[in-house]
Amino acid sequence: MALIVKKFGGSSVATPEKIRNVAKRILREKAFDDRIVMVVSAMGDTTDDLIALAGEVVDTPYQYTREMDMLMTTGEQVSIALLAMAFRSMGHPAISLTGAMVGLRTDSAHTKGRILGIHPERVHEELDKGNIVVIAGFQGTDAAGNPVTLGRGGSDTSAVAIAGAIGADTCEIYTDVDGIYSADPRIAKGARRMREITYNEMLEMARLGAGVMQPRSVEMGQLYGIPIHVRSTFTSEPGTIIREEYTVEEKSFIIRGVTHDEHVSKITVLGVSNVPGIAHKIFSALADANIDVDMIVQSIRSAESNMTDMVFTVATIDAEEARMVVEGISSEIKASAVAVDNDVAKISIVGAGMLGNPGIAARMFGALSNAEINIEIISTSEISISCLIKGGSVKDAVNRIHDEFFPTEA
């Protein structure tokens, strides 16, 4: 007997036919005594459609974050109800539950909430009744009972957190690709599917733009020690297992993957004094607004005048709010202007193998130089190197860097 959490994304349940196909697959593959919990996203582009609908009512709907969460949580409620109906029509008992019903508690950071805890008694009760439990991903409630969504890719986080809370044997993430690749296979011609990847490497890849997994979902898997199996909705082939350590022998590459993120914006705070406390004021204000900052560069414009520009990146969805926050303190920090550039992208390489291997950065920069792609910002961690480039150069950059580290004859 296995206790398994299976998460299906929006493309997997985009139509009534696909919903029925998911139900048929689960019942076909289910062993007699398996206990199944499903976490489901909204159908297809439903979330985007709801956001667009809000945009037709008000110009800047995200200024009303609580109401946006009230709106967006409806998408998952549609898909879970339909899937539960599909199971029941096929003769298997099932029940749909919202995030609130399964005791998923969050903080009050609307549209980007964090899970504080899960009280899954209702889940166990329904499993004991023989139900397949179909849970709305992407959502929970705060202490006051308000709906809170978990940000982009939040259904993955819901699934892994629920798997940990109920003590599941594994968490399967079904998506429109058949595993984790060395680069986005829609962009890189020679992208390779991995059989396994460690939590640390996958976390870094997800943080740097590998959209197949949300970073917090990988963190949850590592926290609870839950193996995460990323596999295709449309085939029965095994995908990629995310776990603590490798258990199979694979050809060793210095890096594990090339990632890209086109959902970033560059913020430049012009003409501030190069004195202690300025960076603290800027980034404290952004933190108070719950805006994550990634790459940061401070450059001296003039040694004589002791003036500097502060440059950093944020998610594009936060760019306008970030600009408003910094402009709100511009008089205090004596900034001459705040500029936003949305035509940028972040390209990264990730891999524990780069530790102790000198020259990795030079090879990455050389690949970009050969493609005549300029680097605007560079940042590094122990197992990654990231470059900010112009947005229109992404495809060329990914392929040049991937070819450098994953040559076709390898």
Automatic annotation (TrEMBL):
According to its UniProt record, the EC number is 2.7.2.4
Report keywords, A-Z.
Amino-acid biosynthesis, ATP-binding, Diaminopimelate biosynthesis, Kinase, Lysine biosynthesis, Nucleotide-binding, Repeat, Transferase
Coiled-coil region list: none
* Pathway membership: Amino-acid biosynthesis; L-methionine biosynthesis via de novo pathway; L-homoserine from L-aspartate: step 1/3; Amino-acid biosynthesis; L-threonine biosynthesis; L-threonine from L-aspartate: step 1/5; Amino-acid biosynthesis; L-lysine biosynthesis via DAP pathway; (S)-tetrahydrodipicolinate from L-aspartate: step 1/4
**Positions of the ACT domain:** 267-352
Q: Which GO terms describe its biological process?
A: diaminopimelate biosynthetic process; homoserine biosynthetic process; lysine biosynthetic process via diaminopimelate; threonine biosynthetic process
Highest taxon, organism lineage: Bacteria
- Residues that bind substrate, according to the entry? T47, E76
Catalyzed reactions = L-aspartate + ATP = 4-phospho-L-aspartate + ADP
Look up the record and report any one GO term of the cellular component aspect.
cytosol
Q: Which InterPro entries match?
A: AceGlu_kinase-like_sf, ACT-like_dom_sf, ACT_Aspartokinase, ACT_dom, AKii-LysC-BS, Asp/Glu/Uridylate_kinase, Asp_kin_monofn, Asp_kinase
Keyword GTP-binding annotated: no
Indicate which residues the UniProt annotation says bind ATP: K7, F8, G9, G10, T175, D176, Y181, R186
State the Gene Ontology terms under molecular function: aspartate kinase activity; ATP binding
Any Pfam family matching the protein: ACT_9
So what does this one do? Catalyzes the phosphorylation of the beta-carboxyl group of aspartic acid with ATP to yield 4-phospho-L-aspartate, which is involved in the branched biosynthetic pathway leading to the biosynthesis of amino acids threonine, isoleucine and methionine.
Tell me the NCBIfam families matching this sequence. asp_kinases, PRK06635.1-2, PRK06635.1-4
Protein family according to the UniProt entry: Belongs to the aspartokinase family.
Subunit organization: Tetramer consisting of 2 isoforms Alpha (catalytic and regulation) and of a homodimer of 2 isoforms Beta (regulation).
Protein known as: Aspartokinase
**Organism the protein comes from:** Centipeda periodontii DSM 2778
